[in-house]
Amino acid sequence: MNDFIKIFLVLCGVVASFLFGRSFGEKTFKETPDYRSVVQSNEELNFARSDLENIKIKLQNVTDTAANKKTDELLTQIFQIFESDMGLKIQNKDQIVQKAADVAKTAEEKTTALAAAEAKLKSVATAANDEKKEDTQEAEKSAVRTAKNWTRTNLNKFKSYEWMVTNSSGNTSTLSDLKKVQIRNIASFLRDAEVADTQCESFYGSYKGSVRDIDNRYFGSMEFELKRNEDSENLAGKVSWYNNDQAFSENLRNDCGKKIDGLSGRVFSISADKYVQIYKLNNFDKTAGNFYEVLPNGTTKIIGSFVLNRVDKF
């Protein structure tokens, strides 16, 4: 019994000593500089996280309203956040803001100038379209005119220009004279013209030469041939134009084109929309004329002019 009591007292003493030492150790550790440093660091970290969150919120607000502000205003607000909230020192801040404002102003001026140029271009295009429409309407009106156009004073003037062509020598001056006898409306001319089956002898022969467009550039080759068959006494021939992969040709049978009474020029068709106006040069074995195209809207387009040399007579 006495031994049990002794053992019990010893155990109680050991337990009491352990509890006293643990309490003393915990209290002593919390009072150490290392523990206080850890606590202070945690508090500073919490403050830093809070400041960072506030900066993020401010920057997000600046970003959300960026569409309604100018570049220099945005930079000023961002710099304020850097300086007041983050403690950063920014050199030449005012110069940076001013430069951003200048760049934005220059971009705005260029945008305004571009918009003005586009508006002017659109205005010019509209005016050109209106002018083209007026020209088309005028051509359509011209297409329904009658032979009165060829029976007034302009007929005599036209005949004087034809005289200049037929009495030219077939050089560059002939091409200039041909511009004065250009037919403005082939459809109107053909309505007033008649098939020419007389006075064709001067055109007999085979002629070849090149076409020059309105800019005096080569635009293919032209051939014209007219003769009277010895067997049947009928007229026969052809008018052809070749240019690279393009070719148009029309056979002539018992006529030498269409002409208006009193005029010298003959008009021949070489396709559904292409025509030639031909003159015989009086003092030379040459023919000369103009080359036309009738556009889908009925207007007549001058393609070019030509002078052809006779190749079957030496």
Q: Give the count of structural domains.
A: 2
**Total number of strands:** 10
Q: What portion of residues belong to β-strands?
A: 15-25%
Please outline the major beta sheet: 8 strands, antiparallel
- The percentage helix is 40-55%
Strand arrangement, largest sheet? 5-4-3-2-10-9-8-7
CATH topology of the largest domain: Lipocalin
Rg, Å, rounded:
51 Å
Low-confidence stretches: 139-148
Structural class: alpha+beta
Principal-axis shape equals rod-shaped
CATH class call of the largest domain: Mainly Beta
- H and E order: HHHHHHHEEEEEEEEEE
Number of helices: 7
What can you tell me about this protein's structure?
- With 314 residues, the protein is an alpha+beta fold.
- The protein folds into two domains: 96 residues; 164 residues, Lipocalin (Beta Barrel).
- It has seven helices and ten strands.
- The strands form two sheets. The protein has an eight-stranded antiparallel β-sheet with strand order 5-4-3-2-10-9-8-7, with helices on both faces.
- Strand 9 and strand 10 form a beta hairpin.
- Helix 3 packs antiparallel against helix 4 and helix 5 runs antiparallel to helix 6.
- About 3% of the residues have low confidence.
- Keywords: Coiled coil.
